[in-house]
Design brief:
single chain, 196 residues, alpha/beta, globular, binds flavin mononucleotide
Length: 196
């Protein structure tokens, strides 16, 4: 069944060997279970945007490049987003900030949830991204799970040995976040804070 609402689960890192995609897939599995919303992975490594190369500021929507028009159409096709990202040096991965900066109206007003990860949950990355999303007039959920990662969760190929077990304590928060995302979608004028 096709859901009337599509939610993009953005894979917010693009290193050749990375754990973000596995975590995004785990989030998607929990989010999709029993949900009327249609969650889809949006992998920034596959989108492969260059560094922002539009001559005009994105807020004007006057895009010169085909890669920007493709990214614009994809982002427009989603009703909301879950951004899954690691913390890089107390901040956000450049690939994600770049992908956000490429567009403007396409993000505006849409609900956004964050799932960060790092040894201490990636809270500093979350704080920075929340401000950027405010600048883009997105509506952030009140719950934004911050997952603690440890090296012993991974095998030698950087695959999670048992991702379900590793992050089981965070699954209720992911479900709570998805409920808040659905509530924001159902009420187009509510801010995330109003639903806290
Ligand atoms: C450039 C870079 C900066 C990092 N900075 C942090 C950090 O500030 N805090 C933290 O807990 N982990 C940090 N790490 C470790 C990451 O959490 C870990 O490498 C994780 O696998 C990154 O996600 P990825 O594999 O999807 O790129 C950093 C890793 C990289 C590559």
């Amino acid at each position: 069944m096709n859901s009337p609402h599509r939610i993009g689960v953005v894979v917010g890192s693009n290193r050749p060997i990375r754990i973000c995609k596995q975590i995004a897939q785990w989030v998607l599995g929990i989010a999709q279970n029993g949900s009327a919303l249609g969650y889809e992975l949006v992998d920034l490594a596959e989108i492969a945007l260059p560094f922002l190369d539009e001559p005009a500021i994105p807020a004007l929507g006057n895009y010169q490049h085909e890669h920007t028009r493709r990214w614009s159409a994809l982002v427009r096709s989603f009703d909301g987003f879950v951004f899954v990202l690691p913390q890089y040096n107390w901040g956000d991965p450049a690939v994600l900030k770049n992908a956000l900066d490429f567009l403007y109206d396409e993000w505006s007003g849409k609900p956004a949830a964050l799932v960060t990860f790092g040894t201490r949950g990636g809270l500093r990355a979350a704080e920075q991204l929340k401000i950027v999303l405010q600048g883009l007039h997105m509506r952030n959920t009140a719950t934004n799970p911050a997952l603690n990662t440890r090296p012993d969760m991974l095998d030698e190929a950087a695959r999670f040995i048992d991702i379900g077990a590793a992050f089981a304590p965070f699954a209720p928060a992911v479900r709570q976040m998805c409920g808040e995302l659905a509530a924001l979608l159902a009420d187009p004028v509510a801010s995330g804070e109003a639903l806290q």
